[in-house]
Every structure is written in C-alpha cells, then in structure tokens.
Amino acid sequence: MNFRYFSKNGQILPFVDAKISLENIEYQYGFGVYETLKVRNKILYFVKQHVERLLNSARIIGLEHVFLQKQIENFIENLVRKNDILSCNIKVLLIGGKTPNDSLLYIFSLAPLFPDRKLYTKGATTESVIYERFLPKAKTLNMLPSYLFYTHAKSKGHYDALLIDYKNNILEGTRTNFFSVRGTTLFTPPKQKVLNGVTRQTVIYVAKKNGFEIKEEEIPQKKLLGFDGWFLTNTSSKIIPIIQIDNLKLAQIPLELKELMKLYDEFLDKSKGKFEG
Most buried of the four, 19, 108, 231, 254, by CB within 10 Å? Predict the structure, then answer.
C-alpha cells in the first residue's frame, strides 16, 4: 500500500522524508504518547475522542507541548484527504522535547488490520500473564512488556494476552479492553485501572442505548467461568468474542454478545465516524 505523505507538526511532507534524529533522547527513552485511528471506506472514525485521549496521556506523563486539540484534529483530517486512501490506520506520535516548542507531532498512515473473520464467529483464544502497566491510563511509548507478552501469545496461536494484576484480577489485553457478559449485563474493569479505549467507550454507549447494564468492577480470574461470555475491544477489531482463556473454555458465544456485536456494527455504519455520547 503506497502512502505518499506524512505530517510533521502539521506540515504535510513526502513519506520518504520521514525521519527522527538519532540525537532525540526523548524518543530513545520513550518520552511520548500515541494513538491509532481507523479509516474505513474513506471515513475517519472518532477523531475527537482519540485526540482527547492523546492529550490526556500527555498530561499524565508531564509531556508539555504547543499543540491544541482542534489543531491536531485538523492535521489528521488534512493528511487523510491528502493520501486519499480507501482504508488504513492512522498513527499519531507526540514526542516530548526539552521545551514545549521542541515537541514533535508525527501523523502517518499504516496498512489496515483486518482480523481473521473466523474470530467473530468461532471466538478467540487468549493466555494470561501477571503484569500491571505503569501509568495504565496513559497510552505511552513504553510498550516493550506488552509487545513481548503479545508476541508470545501469538506464537502460541492466541489472539492476545490478558494482563492480570497481583490480586489475580483481569485488567486488559496488551492492546485491547476486556469485558465479561452475564445475560444483558456487561462487566469491565474500572477505567481508573486500564486504558479507556475509544472502542471501549463506544461499546459501552451502544450497550446502554440498547438495554444492557454496565458494571465497572474487579473481575477475579477465579470467577471467569461464572460468566456467559467474554470479549475484547479495540480500534482495529471492534468486538472480538473470547472462547478460551488459558485452560478455561466456553461452550459457545452467548446470544446476547452476538446481538451486541450486530448492534455495534450498525452503530459504526450510522455514525459516519462521529460520536458525541
């Protein structure tokens, strides 16, 4: 896929000119935050919410910069128009500097990620690992542990690894949010302990609008079989049902979860990339 342009501090430049200085110590040390957005059929999804979270992540880690919310939204939209790609992912990197004026904002396109369609009908398998992310509410460049856990899970044929806290409660995936289902009630870990994903936010919105109850509470690993189902959410994959966690297996994907998946797809089609819930 040929992405001809990227954006640096709002200036659209040829992709071949993209570079980061080897002297950029902030980048070397991971002093930055990022977001991944989705473009499907030339519709850019939920740019406002993604930029809000980018700026919130920067505040959490003390990254001072000169960029404004609406300004960043415009930079992203301008690049999407310039590249004129039907479907892609958009990566936004905000890297700190010695002063706010030295901060750097890179925006570029990546090939879209399309999960195996069988995951939606058959369910995914996962494995768990005990690990609590540093500053979990921020989406930072400190991704090495998550990368290692994710690649190990993939090597075993799993969709993702689930992070477990030291009290044996489910937190989230390495790049996903976690939910359990019991009837028409959804259970998800408290947002103070995880990254509040944009898909997580919109799934909760759709669920509430359609009669589901939402409970944010601890989900002990030992009580997983007390639920009818489990699922993961993220920008690229929407809702992925889980059929197995470690050695715990479910017989089937519950009907209520299948209905929620259908409702969420309908919401995405109708939203045209906007969400004000």
Answer: 231
CB 131 within 8 A of CB 161: no
Residues 103 and 179 in one domain: no
Q: Is the pLDDT of residue 104 over 90?
A: yes
Domain span including residue 142: 118-271
* Residues 162, 143, 94: CA angle, nearest 5 degrees: 130
| Average model confidence (pLDDT) across the chain | 96
Q: Print the SS3 string covering the chain.
A: CCCCEEEECCEEEEHHHCCCCCCCHHHHCCCEEEEEEEEECCEECCHHHHHHHHHHHHHHHCCCCCCCHHHHHHHHHHHHHHHCCCCEEEEEEEECCCCHHHCEEEEEEECCCCCCCHHHHHCEEEEEEECCCCCCCCCECCCHHHHHHHHHHHHCCCCEEEEECCCCEEEEECCCEEEEEECCEEEECCHHHCCCCHHHHHHHHHHHHCCCEEEECCEEHHHHHHCCEEEEEECCCEEEEEEEECCEECCCCCHHHHHHHHHHHHHHHHHCCCCCC
pTM for this prediction? 0.95
- Report the DSSP pairing between strands 160-164 and 124-130: parallel
Whether the CB-CB separation of 178 and 195 falls below 8 Å is answered with no
Q: Tell me: the pLDDT tens digits for 242-254?
A: 999 999 999 999 9
Tell which of 59, 86, 110 closes a domain.
110
Same domain assignment for residues 34 and 139: no
Q: 145 and 230 in one domain?
A: yes
Count the Cβ atoms, other than its own, within 10 Å of residue 115. Answer: 14
